[in-house]
């Protein structure tokens, strides 16, 4: 069997999800030909599939010296490898490297659609770092517009309709049991059907019980995963949608190219993504009085008009059916346990150094992490080295496996771990969202840091709506002080453990009826405003 046949066999095993068999064949192939580039590429895909970003990174790293960057035939192949290693770097919190490799990936492709999608990935990645300015974001926004122009995507002529009800279209790849559903359930299912008709444009192949329920409440459901951007936009156009609400922004599998055709009379983005899309096709971005408090900063980063909801721009809907522990664990442990269940790639070295100062200031305290990176020994060892290099005492840190998938019933198992946490520590600048809500719902107070950028202020908004705005601070020093002070007040921790869920349920954060009435008013107002502006030229 020659090398190409061996590779084909390995690829078939990969497609069949027989990953161990595929790796054995690739090992044989690499012995026969250490320079067989596709073997390392396929190996990286396998490690990605099994959730081992460390080995994914190393496989790509071995491949880099073999790439012939000057060869036109290898440009797209090199672009793919740069993307893969950039994605691995993102999962390992290597933000600078991730940014640079994604940039290389854009530079090495001649495909405008691919370049646009990669630039969208870069924009999303920039939210993980404090280093990027508004000018940096706008540079990427302009690149997106350039690629849209090269692809020949231009807006349809604007139209307004006179249907009996206002037609709202929701565009997303996440109409399934995805975290964003916990924030958008009321919006998607509770609008007044006497006033509105609801259409869903789903860009996902997968479906589950959430998908089935959304289908049942929809006035129109369109699967657009396999459609071209223009065909999907034409369907939205033919449905005479008054307001198209994009829930994805620059997140995975977005269909911003569909929105770029401007198939609806008015277009909004928000909820599923934390910052501006940077695209002229969106008229508005949904925010609230806390996230968009700093008008100057918002205008600096955004091209959309900001909608300031009077309380919260999201409405949390919990699927949890278990009660929080009766007392915080410090009562039985006789020491305070901090925790962070956010995605580990949100955790920067700066925030880790801040957490070290908190642990140093609170005697005998502990810190618990929980994430999929700890599901493998490679991931755990990688993180341990990082923590040791930053001077953290590993004897005071617990790294728990996630072993968690977004499936029915598993969330209860996941959230039981909050019984072991006294205080949750939020990440920065990419803060927690649904994770923050889950911690509070389980009776665990959250310390959050916010800045000027919209996406850094989700913790501020959530905590302010619940009545805990004093736990949201605007500097690392205040973050440390607030965490240390709360850790010293065990009586307050007991009170919060027993009352936080009730506080949330009575707050605007979970007031589905009030939230929906407010957003209905917003929809009616912006449609009328834009119609009047259009008619008046």
Task: Describe, in plain words, how this protein is organized in 3D.
The protein has 537 residues and is α/β, with parallel strands linked by helices. It folds into three domains: 3-110, Tetratricopeptide repeat domain (Serine Threonine Protein Phosphatase 5, Tetratricopeptide repeat), CATH 1.25.40.10; 166-315, Rossmann fold (3-Layer(aba) Sandwich); 330-510, Rossmann fold, CATH 3.40.50. Helices cover 48% and strands 11% of the residues. The protein is built from 22 helices and 13 strands. The strands form two sheets. A seven-stranded parallel beta sheet has the order 3-2-1-4-5-6-7, sandwiched between helices. The protein has a six-stranded parallel beta sheet with strand order 10-9-8-11-12-13, sandwiched between helices. β9, α16 and β10 form a beta-alpha-beta unit. The longest helix is centred in the C-terminal third of the chain and has 24 residues, at 512-535. Residues 405-410 have low confidence and may be disordered.
Structural descriptors:
537 residues, Serine Threonine Protein Phosphatase 5, Tetratricopeptide repeat, 7-stranded parallel sheet, Rossmann fold, alpha/beta
CATH architecture of the largest domain: 3-Layer(aba) Sandwich
Structural class determined from secondary elements: alpha/beta
Ends apart, CA distance between termini: 71 Å
The gross shape turns out to be: globular
What's the CATH class of the largest domain, please? Alpha Beta
Number of strands: 13
Number of domains: 3
The biggest sheet, with number of strands, parallel, antiparallel or mixed sense and barrel status, is: 7 strands, parallel
**Number of H- or I-type helical stretches:** 22
> What is the CATH homology-level superfamily of the largest domain?
Glycogen Phosphorylase B
The strands making up the biggest β-sheet line up spatially as 3-2-1-4-5-6-7
Assign the CATH topology of the largest domain: Rossmann fold
Strand fraction: 5-15%
- Residue windows where pLDDT falls under 50 for at least 5 positions: 405-410
Instruction: Provide the helix percentage.
Output: 40-55%
- The average pLDDT is 94
Radius of gyration (CA) equals 24 Å
């Amino acid at each position: 069997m020659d090398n190409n046949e061996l590779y084909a066999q390995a690829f078939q095993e990969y497609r069949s999800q027989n990953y161990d068999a595929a790796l054995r064949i690739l090992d044989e192939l690499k012995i026969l030909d250490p320079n067989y580039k596709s073997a390392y590429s396929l190996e990286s895909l396998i490690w990605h599939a099994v959730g081992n970003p460390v080995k994914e990174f190393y496989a790509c790293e071995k491949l880099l010296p073999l790439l012939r960057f000057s060869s036109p035939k290898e440009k797209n192949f090199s672009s793919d490898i740069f993307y893969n290693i950039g994605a691995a770097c993102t999962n390992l919190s290597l933000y600078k490297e991730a940014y640079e490799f994604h940039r290389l990936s854009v530079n090495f492709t001649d495909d405008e659609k691919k370049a646009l999608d990669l630039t969208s990935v870069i924009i999303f990645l920039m939210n993980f770092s404090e280093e990027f300015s508004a000018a940096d974001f706008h540079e990427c926004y302009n690149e997106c517009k350039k690629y849209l122009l090269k692809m020949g995507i231009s807006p349809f002529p604007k139209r307004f309709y006179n249907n009996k009800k206002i037609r709202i279209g929701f565009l997303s790849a996440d109409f399934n049991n995805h975290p964003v559903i916990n924030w958008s359930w009321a919006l998607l299912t509770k609008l007044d059907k006497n006033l509105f008709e609801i259409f869903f444009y789903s860009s996902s192949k997968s479906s589950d019980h959430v998908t089935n329920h959304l289908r049942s409440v929809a006035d129109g459901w369109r699967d657009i995963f396999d459609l071209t951007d223009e065909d999907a936009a034409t369907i939205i156009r033919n449905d005479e949608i008054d307001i198209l609400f994009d829930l994805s922004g620059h997140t995975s599998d977005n269909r911003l190219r569909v929105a770029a055709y401007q198939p609806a009379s008015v277009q909004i983005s928000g909820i599923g993504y934390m910052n501006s899309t940077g695209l002229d096709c969106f008229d508005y971005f949904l925010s609230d009085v806390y996230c968009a408090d700093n008008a100057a900063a918002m205008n600096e980063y955004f091209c959309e008009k900001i909608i300031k909801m009077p309380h919260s721009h999201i409405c949390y809907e919990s699927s949890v059916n278990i009660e929080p522990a009766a007392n915080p664990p410090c009562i039985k442990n006789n020491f305070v346990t901090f925790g962070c269940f956010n995605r580990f790639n949100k955790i920067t070295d700066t925030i880790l150094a801040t957490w070290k100062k908190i642990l140093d200031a609170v005697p005998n305290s502990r810190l618990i992490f929980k994430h999929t990176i700890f599901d493998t020994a490679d991931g755990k060892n990688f993180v341990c080295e990082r923590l040791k290099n930053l001077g953290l005492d590993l004897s005071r840190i617990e790294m728990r496996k996630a072993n968690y998938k977004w499936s029915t019933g598993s969330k209860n198992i996941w959230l039981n771990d909050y019984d072991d946490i006294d205080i949750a520590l939020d990440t920065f600048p990419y803060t927690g969202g649904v994770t923050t809500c889950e911690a509070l719902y389980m009776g665990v107070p959250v310390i959050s840091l916010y800045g000027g950028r919209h996406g850094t202020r989700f913790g501020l908004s959530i905590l302010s709506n619940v009545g805990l705005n004093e736990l949201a601070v605007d500097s690392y020093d205040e973050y440390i002080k607030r965490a240390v002070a709360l850790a010293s007040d065990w009586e307050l921790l007991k009170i919060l453990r027993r009352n936080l869920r009730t506080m949330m349920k009575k707050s605007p954060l979970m007031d589905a009826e009030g939230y929906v009435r407010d957003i209905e008013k917003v929809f009616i107002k912006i449609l009328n405003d834009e119609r009047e502006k259009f008619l008046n030229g």
